[in-house]
TrEMBL record:
This is Thiol reductant ABC exporter subunit CydD. The chain crosses the membrane at residues 57-76, 139-156, 162-180, 246-269. GO terms for cellular component: plasma membrane. It comes from Paenibacillus oryzae. It is found in: Cell membrane. The keyword Magnesium does not apply. GO terms for molecular function: ABC-type transporter activity; ATP binding; ATP hydrolysis activity; cysteine-type peptidase activity. Keywords: ATP-binding, Cell membrane, Hydrolase, Membrane, Nucleotide-binding, Protease, Thiol protease, Transmembrane, Transmembrane helix, Transport. Residues 378-613 form the ABC transporter domain. It is a multi-pass membrane protein.
Length: 620
């Protein structure tokens, strides 16, 4: 069984052409370094040993300047390639993360704090920059160039070559030892950062509640402890980086000293070597060791390889088992101009018309707006879901909803109503069984088309920072005119509110709907649905907690929407769903029965008990 490739390895595979180009540049750079040393040694030999006139070496000095300029350009080329690799890798990772979070938003929301995910998408991805922009160019240079320099040294003086060959492994050996020690340090750093970000964002979002419950001081202490933990983890990484740099400098200095001592003995004591050879070798030796040292510094120092590895593991954890597919969708396979990528192919494919298909002969709803001419048939076939191994389970159930029917989902708190609603909406993927739309299994490839025809109105619809008009228009998923927005607002009973405001539909509402009442937020969500004109409408009992007048306004608007759509409602007030075509009764994740109100009252004791309890509650 082949070992699973790490995220960084997969990203490097996608940029293999740039790696090959970087290797070719490094090869030319090695030749330039050797040439520069040779020309410089020859110039010094002629001037100081042979006492040649200056005008005789003008051509030599010109060649030396040209080689130095070529070396600078080659270094710039390698650095530019590294930067482009870093940009493409970060783009691919962020695209993959966004796709992961958007493909399965409910499961993503349940897995950890939002602040932690933001930290991974921003800080952890940014940390990977150094791996591609600094470490990869230095590593490629350290793989190619030292071999060239060592070959030249062996040709000139084999004793020095053997000393270099014997001392060079101490640098990568030291890197390995330090790497083993710090393997978990970088992961700890990002774990601390994610914890700090999550705690901080949770505190901001719940600041009012914390203040009211007298927990603000306690939460402040938690933020402080989380911040200090991140500080300590960061300082630990920096301490290792500084220690590593000192040790590398020490190893390089001692190695160069040993070679210089051997050259001095050969040149001055034993007189077995010419000045030109000794000087050339002495010029090449620091170049040789500095290449290895720079790779080590790039690996351990600052925002570089070691930190990138810990950051990449955090990204990989968030991507989960879908990493390969998500990266394949996210960007180019090799990152070179003119190449096509699977993301572009997928976008083009999504916009192309496809043949309608369906197991029962009905038109498929999935691929084009004009294929949905009426509400669809929705079917759950032995579909079940579990949040985690020990978490709540919705047992497999079968349920069929004909076009235009109204389904109400009822049950006690925690019975699985919202989970079933999310399965029907396609927001959750069934752990077993399947969801079918007009006989076609709803899969990820259909999601974009399916969601164009679905509206979901919760008890707490999210209102974005912006104007009334902008918040309504977002429901259409297309460019809409002001007349369309105003008609949708009027249908949802929002026109009177807009008329009372100084700037009307251009009034700015706060993030999360600050400044709007619960009923006003619900009407704004309904206006989005009227503008969209969906084939399927899902409600999570949006009228709970509203006053009677607002509830009646919303009920009228909902009834108007339901005339041309399939309506699925999670019902808490049973009197609102007595006319539903199908009522599904859940208890502890099990579907006890489904039918009309009268049938269930007569046949299902739990439902009859719920109806009676609400009736008595209403009378009292």
């Amino acid at each position: 069984m082949s070992r699973k490739k790490s995220l960084l390895s997969r990203l490097l595979t996608r940029q293999r052409r740039r790696l090959l180009l970087m290797a070719a540049i490094s090869l030319a750079l090695g030749a330039a370094i050797a040439g520069q040393a040779g020309l410089l040694a020859e110039a010094v030999q002629r001037i100081f040993v042979e006492n040649a006139p200056f005008h005789s070496i003008i051509g030599l000095l010109g060649a030396l300047l040209a080689v130095m300029a070529a070396r600078a350009l080659l270094l710039y080329g390698n650095g530019t390639l590294g930067l482009r690799m870093a940009v493409d890798a970060k783009t691919a990772m962020r695209s993959a993360l966004l796709r992961k979070l958007s493909r399965d938003p409910l499961a993503s929301a349940l897995a950890g704090q939002t602040g932690g995910k933001v930290s991974v998408a921003l800080d952890a991805v940014d940390e990977a920059d150094g791996y591609f922009s600094q470490y990869m160019p230095r590593m490629m240079e350290a793989v190619v160039i030292p071999a060239i320099l060592l070959t030249v040294v062996f040709i000139q003086h084999s004793h020095s070559g053997f000393i270099m060959l014997a001392t060079a492994p101490f640098i990568p050996l030291f890197m390995i030892l330090v790497g083993l020690k710090t393997k978990t340090k970088s992961e700890e750093k990002f774990a601390q950062l994610a914890e700090f970000s999550g705690t901080f964002l949770d505190s901001l979002q719940g600041l009012v509640s914390l203040k009211l419950f007298g927990r603000a001081k306690h939460q402040r202490q938690q933020i402080e402890a989380s911040s200090l933990g991140y500080r300590d983890a960061t300082m630990g990484i920096l301490r290792i980086a500084f220690t590593n740099t000192f040790m590398l400098e020490l190893i390089v200095m001692l190695s160069i000293g040993v070679v210089a001592l051997e050259l001095a003995l050969q040149l001055l004591v034993f007189k077995t070597m010419e000045f030109h050879t000794a000087f050339l070798v002495l010029l090449l030796v620091p170049e040789f060791y500095n290449l290895l040292k720079n790779m080590g510094i790039a690996f351990h120092g600052g925002r570089t390889s070691m930190g990138a590895m810990g950051a990449a593991r955090k990204v990989e954890e968030l991507l989960g088992e879908d990493a390969d597919g998500l990266l394949g969708d996210a960007g180019a396979t090799a990152g070179m101009p003119g190449e096509r990528d699977s993301y572009t192919d997928a976008r083009e494919k999504e916009n192309m018309p496809e043949e309608a298909y369906g197991a029962d002969g009905n038109s498929a709803l999935m691929n084009s707006d004009n294929l949905i001419l009426m509400p669809p048939t929705i079917e759950l076939r032995n579909a079940g879901f579990r949040y985690s191994r020990e978490g709540f389970q919705l047992n497999p159930l079968t349920l069929r909803l004909a076009p235009g029917e109204q389904l109400a989902i009822v049950g006690k708190s925690g019975s699985g109503k919202t989970t079933l609603l999310h399965l029907l909406a396609g927001l959750l993927k069934p752990a077993e069984g399947e969801v079918l739309i007009n006989g076609v299994t709803l899969t990820e490839s259909h999601e974009a088309s399916w969601f164009r025809h679905v509206s979901y109105i919760t008890q707490h619809p999210y209102i974005f920072a912006g104007t009334f008009a902008d918040n309504i228009a977002i429901g259409a998923g297309r460019d809409v005119s002001r007349d369309e927005i105003e008609r949708a607002a009027k249908a949802a009973g929002l026109d009177l509110l807009a008329a009372e405001l100084e700037q009307g539909y251009d009034t700015v509402v706060g993030e999360g709907g600050r400044g709007l009442s619960g009923g006003e937020r619900q009407r704004l969500a309904l206006a989005r649905a009227f503008l969209k004109g969906p084939a399927v409408i899902l409600f999570d009992e949006p009228t709970v907690g509203l006053d009677l007048v607002t509830e009646r306004v919303l009920q009228r608007s909902i009834a108007e929407l339901a005339k041309k759509a399939t309506m699925i409602t999670v019902a808490h007030r049973l009197y609102t769903i007595t006319q539903a075509d199908v009522i599904a009764v859940l208890d502890n994740g099990v579907l006890l029965g489904a039918g009309r109100h009268e049938e269930l009252v007569a046949q299902l004791p739990l439902y009859a008990e719920m109806v009676e309890m609400q009736r008595r509650g209403g009378l009292s």
